[in-house]
Design a protein that fits this description.
By secondary structure, the protein is mostly helical. The protein has 17 helices and two strands. A two-stranded antiparallel ribbon has the order 1-2. The chain is globular and about 70 Å long.
Length: about 475
């Protein structure tokens, strides 16, 4: 009931994204029912029916990925202060988000079942003069348990993926909470410094050089004041105190660099995502599999098509893994060779949003290259494949582009505070728009040639 109320009270943009999830679920459910209809109408070719069912894995993965992206950007299920007291903690909000996703996907699956039954002629007669009777098994009874099982795949998969992606994670102890190091006589401390015998007993030794440096600077300031015979003005006293504090801080820094590891190290620069080498390796393996399938001459047989499908899947996975690393590299290249304010702003934004933007962008590039390579595997002899292939291609491409746009909206929400701070400091809005244009142009300049190259390399072995 709470999930229904949150669904009704959502903003129009959120409702539009949920309707897109329902539409994607409807398309995937129709493709699954189409594979079932082909299996019912052609019981003598189970390998072809199994291959059609395997091709439905790509629309299913695209739909689940899009559902997870929509659930991440849903403002109604974000943890807020005070909701835990009402019983809406992170686990409850995760359950509500999973229930909302399951509701949208179930709506789409029911719509797919209605359209499938209508095209079969089970509701109001055979439409389109029976043009869809071949791949929908219009003359055979439809097994309802099998159809409901296939239709339940999308809601269950999407809700489980949302629950895993939005599960509450425990706060891991950071570098500020270090394990206690027990010193002499059982006294614990946070520094792994080994003390000599009797060193801890001497007064002030365990305080390190910082205390001695602070006392030395303060003693020198007082001695200079006494030698002058006059009371120094407030500015001179403040300068002396600042000098003492600076000396103490410098001594403490020197001591920490020499013999004591600091409890809180300085903030490190943004690290590059670690998926770039793995993405390149998986991409090379996928291209090798496609070349091997084309050399053995099995591309036109069902087994050869399964190998080609595995090669395309590995190629797409490699591009998706390499996307965040390439986005981070693009941001680093924007800041190279004496950058200005615009290039610095655009480059740092790309480095910060490398994982959030890079992975959907890699998925879009993978979908485009795979769609270009699939043209060599298209069978024009079977007329029933044409509408299902067009529907599957449109569904996967639409889900990939919609996921990228959703990730861009999430990134814009994440940097809203930074944008407001820049505007309050006096940065013109045109400067921020130019930085966004520079980011977009840099991404297009990097990913467009890469997508074309991978598409050509994937299509050449399959066309042979």
């Amino acid at each position: 009931m709470l999930a229904l109320r949150l669904t009704r009270s959502a903003r129009p943009a959120v409702q539009l994204r949920r309707l897109l999830v329902a539409a994607a679920s409807a398309g995937t459910g129709f493709l699954l029912l189409g594979a079932l209809g082909h299996a019912l109408n052609h019981p003598d070719t189970p390998s072809v029916s199994a291959l059609r069912l395997a091709w439905c894995a790509a629309p299913l993965a695209a739909t689940v990925y899009f559902a997870v992206a929509v659930a991440r950007t849903d403002p109604a299920t974000r943890p807020r202060s005070g909701l835990s007291a009402l019983g809406l903690g992170p686990a409850r909000l995760m359950a509500i988000s999973a229930a909302t996703t399951a509701l949208a996907c179930t709506l789409g699956s029911m719509l797919a079942l209605l359209v499938f039954l209508h095209l079969r002629g089970d509701l109001t007669g055979m439409p389109f003069d029976g043009a869809a009777a071949d791949f929908l098994a219009a003359g055979r009874p439809l097994p309802l348990p099998a159809a409901l099982t296939l239709l339940a795949v999308v809601p269950v998969s999407a809700s489980l993926a949302v629950a895993v992606a939005l599960r509450p994670r425990e706060q891991r102890p950071g570098v500020s909470r270090m394990a206690r190091m027990y010193g002499r006589f059982g006294a614990y401390r946070r520094t792994p410094v080994r003390e000599t015998f009797g060193a801890y007993g001497r007064f002030g030794t365990h305080l390190g050089r910082a205390a001695r440096g602070g006392r030395t600077a303060g003693t020198e300031a007082r001695s200079n004041q006494e030698q002058g015979g006059q009371e120094q003005p407030a500015e001179t006293a403040e300068a002396a105190g600042a000098a003492g504090a600076a000396g103490a801080a410098g001594a403490a820094g020197a001591a920490g660099a020499a013999e004591i590891s600091p409890a809180v190290p300085p903030a490190a620069p943004l690290a590059a995502p670690s998926g770039l080498p793995w993405g390149i390796a998986v991409l090379a393996v996928g291209l090798a599999v496609e070349a091997y399938v084309s050399r053995t001459g099995g591309g036109s047989e069902p087994g050869g098509r399964a190998g080609a499908l595995a090669g395309l899947a590995l190629t797409a996975l490699g591009l998706a893994l390499a996307g965040p690393g390439l986005t981070h590299l693009c941001g680093r290249l924007l800041q190279a060779v004496r950058p200005g304010a615009l290039r610095l702003l655009a480059g740092r934004a790309l480095m910060t949003e490398a994982v959030r933007i890079g992975r959907p962008l890699g998925v879009v590039c993978a979908v485009i290259s795979a769609a270009y390579a699939m043209t060599s595997l298209y069978d024009t002899d079977d007329p029933s494949v044409a509408p299902l292939t067009a529907l599957g291609t449109l569904l996967v491409t639409g889900c990939a582009v919609a996921t990228l746009l959703t990730a861009a909206a999430e990134a814009r929400q994440a940097r809203a505070l930074t944008t407001d701070a820049l505007l309050r400091l006096g940065a013109p809005a045109a400067t921020l728009r130019r930085a966004a244009a520079i980011r977009s142009a840099a991404l297009v300049a990097l990913f467009a040639p890469l997508t074309l190259a991978v598409a050509e390399l994937s299509a050449l072995p399959l066309a042979a």
